[in-house]
Amino acid sequence: MRYGSGSGSEDPRNDSDSQYFQRGPNQSVDAADSDEEDFGRTLLDSSGDVRDIYSSLLESESESIEPETPEDRERLEWQTMLASVLDGDVLKSEKTRIAVALATSGEEQDKYNHNLWLCIRAKIMGTDEEEERKRVEDLRLRTVDPVINEVLTFCARDLESGDDPGAIALQQVNEVLRHLDIVHTLYPTLKALQLDKPVVAEPDFQAHRDALITWSTIFTSLRRQINVLRKWTGSETLDVTAPVTNADSPLGARYTFGDNGPVADGTTFLERAMKEESIQMTFAKGFMTTVYSLIGASRDAQVNLANLLRKMNLPSFERELVPLISFPTQLALASLRVRLDYAQKLKEPAIMIIDQMIDDLKLNIGIACTLKRQYEAFLSPDPGGNWNLPPCINDNYDTVVLDALSFFFKLIHWKLKSGAKDIYFKETDLIESQWPTFNDVALTVPGGASVVAEQLWYVEPDSEPLVSHSAGSALTNKLMARVTNFFEAQLHLPASQRPTSGQRKRLGPSVNGYARTASQQDMDGEQMISWYSKILDSVRLRYRKLQRFVR
After folding, report:
1. Residues 144, 187: contact at Cβ < 8 Å?
2. What is the Cα gyration radius of the chain?
3. What is the DSSP string of 504-531?
4. Is 176 in contact with 150 (CB distance < 8 Å)?
5. Alpha carbon of 323 to those of 137, 246, 295: distances in Å?
6. Is 24 helix (H, G, I), strand (E, B) or coil?
7. DSSP label at 511?
8. Phi and psi dihedrals of 20, rounded to 5?
9. What's the rounded Cα separation, in Å, for the pair 437 and 47?
10. Taking 60 as the threshold, does the pLDDT of residue 390 lie above it?
């Protein structure tokens, strides 16, 4: 027993033989120090909890040992302090002290911010701080609770009394939100309002408040976009084919100056849009991007907030969404009709005009298909029945797109029939370059896949394959017939009659895309063999490419 009573001779420390022990050659270690080092090493190497071991050891010693000398008492105090640190008492007390200090500092900072806000408000109002404090407290007592209750119990009234229920509801919603803004001005921060009125932090109040703000924002934005479109087109009904005759100044309109000031020249919005810039740039403008995002936000709000909007008796966005959704498709349809009507009036146009018509028609068909897919995405119904808009697209939309596609094939055939050098042996390359347009129509418009198949591969039973050029023949059949006719014509060319001197100056039929002079028709046997070999190679190449495309 370390602190037991007895003579000094019983103390091992008084035994001269046990004072030292040899740990190695010429290395002596104090026995007491060795005990403490071994004890500390055991604690550090132990896989258990150091604090639990040391605390249990100290508790067992303190229960049965009473220090008798000051040195023993001091040693026990140090052990107690070490156990306290290991048990976390010191750390816990420090954490508590720091937390209290931070809380006190935060409260002081909040108080300072509140006083600063109050001083600024008093300065703006032209009063002193104390007077402004009393005024704010009086306003809080009289307005905060009624406004909170107004938000929680809001319900639109008298919507049937006017021709525009949306405008009536918007006025009532904006009035409630204005009252809520006044309440917010009575507090330096939203957190201060929530601390004073805990109901403001509750989910029910926040849901009502957010629903009112969302409905007001979306409804106002929809009305603003409709007004911009009316001014843009010069038509109250957003008719892009109606001539501009009103006195207002629509965007992009042209005027002549008369006796009473500027007068609109009567052109339609469609004509101005097609003359001033391409239809693709018109749809790529930020305005159309804004409209699409706004329609998506309207759908999300009407679907996700359906129960709250129904509880508040707020009207849906259907009345504003229908003209916005139908306007892009209406403009695309009108533009496609104009392009198609112009193209159908042409007879045997030049290759440059054909190329321009192909590019214009391809662009308009692509825009029409893109808008059709967006339209279908907008009108896809909600499973809960909260989004059911009426049809917003013209009944002839698909028919016009298919007619444009059929004429597009006709333009391609005109270009292939022109005999230009750069496409003479690249018929399949030209057709494959238009494949994205064919695929777009086939996947978007009902019946588009059938039109593509009929125009490319289908041959009517009455038409003769590989020979006939009737309207019932498919494009690939016409190309194969052209290859056959070309082959037959080139077979008789070397055996033709010797040309006259005047004929030698003219260009003869082309081979492999290069013109051949008439003087080159005088051939010997080897030249004729070479000639026939080239003809067979070129025909075989063209025919294989056509066969591969058909498959």
Report:
1. no
2. 46
3. HTSEEEEETTEEEEGGGG---HHHHHHH
4. yes
5. 49, 20, 11
6. strand
7. E
8. -130, 155
9. 73
10. yes
